Structure formats: structure tokens, C-alpha cells
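Page 42, continued from yesterday. The earlier attempt failed because a stray header line got pasted into the input along with the sequence. Redoing it now with the clean sequence only.
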Amino acid sequence: MKGAASLGALWSETAESLVRARRMTSLSVALIAISIGLVGAFFLVAENLRGVVETVRDESAVTVFLRPGVTDADRADLERVARDSRLVAKTKRVTPEQARARFSDWWRSLAPAARALPTNPFPESLELELEPSAVASEAIPGFLKNLAAHRAVEEVQFDVDWIRRLRGAVQLAKIAGFVLAALLTLGAAFTIANVVRLTILLHRDEIEILRLVGAPELLIRGPFVLGGLAQGLLGAALAVGGLWLVYRGVIAWVAATKNAFLGVFAVRFLPGSTSLLLLAFGVAAGVAGGLLAVRRKNLAG
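This time it went through. C-alpha cells are written below.
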């Protein structure tokens, strides 16, 4: 009962201190929100790049264009090579007529020109749908070389390198986000420490009176540490809320433009675990700033 009363007194004193120093508190919260918001923006970009990588990986397929006049035996042997690799989930033959029909369907404005050609310029091809884990496999380059060297193959179309580069960009964005988070959390901690230190100066007389009447150190230092925690948590919550509003705004803008390419990028918000991590950064910065500010030399009379 006594502990609950002391905790209530701490929170009450903390709230009163934050309200009395509301201008400095507002500035501190705004700076924390900007810092955490920048970190969250990095994570948001990384999250959406990861979504693009997953989409491309799921829809990845190798297109093998065949030489003119290829025999059935060559086609069958090529399909056997694909099956034996254990990287291919499904194969599909596409005849020149099917390729022209597909082109006419995708590019409707050019369909009359394609139909007017005296001969069909589209080559026969074999589409290989890869296994989900095949894109990341080290065996892919060798498999593509084997396909390209086959006597029935004119050209192999599958650019795995850019998928891997995109995956590397995701990892780089995540690492940059964590480095930026460490630096900005440290900066936010010092900002909070300075704000709390100024608050201590405003309450120096009250602190001396509390010491004279024998108040415990927890009651003297506690409100300032809790004040830092509250500022950090509020700043991080504002950052996450601001990112969500920006995300919704981008979604609405992409929907209005009806741009399918942009729609690929703006598809998801931060996962719950990442949002909680941002809140944890804010809390850590707030507590660290509060502890820095209530060091003995700052509270010495």
C-alpha cells in the first residue's frame, strides 16, 4: 500500500513537472519524434524492398528461347535437363502462335501490326517455373550455363543478379537503419538529458527543501527519470503515428495515380515487432537521458 502510494506520488510529480516545463517538454518530444521517425523511415523502405524481393522471387521464371527447327527429341532432352536440376517446379511450352497471342493481349495497340506481319517473328520457348528456394541457390548460375549450352537453345532469359542486388540493398538499408537508430537514440538521450537538467535547475529550491526534510533519493530523482521516459515514449509514439499517416497518404496517392509500378513499392506498413522496437528506442533514449540528468553533480546543492 505504501509502495503504491509512493509510485502514485512519483507519477503525479512527474506529470506536474512536465506540464510546468511544457515548452521544453514539447521541444524535446518533437526532436525525439523526428529522430525516431527518420529511423522508422529507413525500416519502412527496407520492409517494402523486402516485399518487392519476395514478390519477384515468387514469380521468378526462366524463359528459354529455342532455335528454329528444334526437334521433339531436343525439346524432351531440354525438359529432362530442367527436371534433373531439382531447381524447376514446372515447365511450360510456348509455341510461336501462343507467344504472338500473348503479345497481342499485353500490347493491344500493337496487336494489329503483329497480326499484319507476313511471318510470325516470335520464337518458340520453354518457361521454367523455379522452386521457391531456387533464386537463392548457388546452383542457379551453373544451371543457366547448362541451359545456354544446350543444342536446342537460342537464348536464356533470367536475370538473377539484380534480384540478389535488390536483396543486398534490403540488408544494407536494415544495417543503415540500426546504425542510424543507435546514433539518433544517443542524440535523443542527450537532448532529453539537457531538457531534464534545465527542469532540475527550475526546481532546485524544491529539491533542497526535500533533502532538508529527509525525503528519499527515489522521490527526488524518480520524477526526472520518469519524465525522461515519458518524453521518449511520447516522441516514439508520435513518430510511429506520423509514419502511419505518411504511409496512408502514399497509398492514397498511388491509388489515385493508378500506377502499377508504384503500387508494388507501397504495399505494407512496418510490422508490429518493428513498431515496438521503435517505441523501445524512444523509451531507452528517455531513460538514459533521465539517468544522465540526475547524476549527483547535477543535483548537488
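Notes: The CA atoms of residues 192 and 289 lie 5 Å apart.
Reminder to self: strip header lines before submitting.
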